[in-house]
Amino acid sequence: MRTLTLLLCLAQLLGCRSVPVGTALAYREPNCDDPETEQAALAAVDYINNRVLRGYKHTLNQIDKVRVWPRRPMGEVFELEIDTLETTCHVLDPTPLANCTVRQLTEHAVEGDCDLRVLKQDGQFSVLFAKCDSSPDSAEDVRRLCPGCPLLAPLNDTKVVHAVDVALTAFNAQSNGSYFQLVEISRAQFVPLPQSTYVEFAVAATDCAAKDVTDPAKCNLLAEKQNGFCKATLMEKVGGEDVAVTCTVFQTQPLPPQPQPGDAVADPAVPAPSPANLLADPLLVGPVVVALPEAPLPGHRAHYDLRHAFAGVASVESASGEAFHVGKAPKVVQPNVAVAAGPLVHPCPGRIRYFKV
What we know:
Number of domains: 2
CATH architecture of the largest domain: Roll
GO molecular function: cysteine-type endopeptidase inhibitor activity
Number of strands: 10
Number of helices: 6
Structural class: alpha+beta
CATH class of the largest domain: Alpha Beta
Oligomer: single chain
Subcellular location: Secreted
GO biological process, one term: positive regulation of phagocytosis
Main location: secreted
Signal peptide: 1-18
Radius of gyration: 26 Å
Largest sheet: 4 strands, antiparallel
Strand order of the largest sheet: 1-2-3-4
């Protein structure tokens, strides 16, 4: 009798844990240009730009792929692949992304490639996982389009570093306010005619007055940072050089919130969550920002790769919830696509908003 009772209890437990085949396991593939898909992609781009540590803001160029997975007990997860383009707005520039200009092909454009998972719940989008990298257009393509256009130069080239030093010295010499220190060299190009070095760099104000500085090493960055962004051209000429520099100083930025005791700290080694994990676990803890280690500057890097330029994110979920098994691909549900004889036109990739690199 005891054995029979035990078997019945075990059967009930197994029944509670099982999921009927085909129940809520299907993903759907909406059109890449569907408004909801674009909302998820734009939310992801904003997330990335808000966490970029160096370089320039990126904007959405094309949605390459989307799958939408149901997530119990509520919500959906958008699994996205998108292409982005670098803009001319530095990450420290508070200008809204909608007002930032996309860097053109003739200026040696930079393209980003991102894999993302975005949760939609109660009409709100939040990023669960983001992984990006970026690369400049090839020199061959730039030369083919514009033979005389300058290419990107290594950021630590001696001529580039010298041009930034001269430009920053000239800017501080003309300043009636704070003394500014270099934050990063953001972009550089060697211009053939007239022979010159073009640079873009970020700066930050210190507690020293520019006109009184005798030893820059004694100057400290302000607690409430005041950043700026400069563009300069150092022209070589017989017997010397001329520099032209313009800097835009942004409003003082408030101090970021400091971590409190007991705040969750994610393991940087946390792998990207699989669709199975996203579906199986009903309790979400996150997203948790993972600060990537400071990457050394390679000798010939000409731009800040998104792979190293922003802090990643990992989603951490509970081990409880419905069972989900990855086997054969689940049935795909494509909304608003009529079933008809003949080949089915796949709704992705989506439209190109600017140009293809």
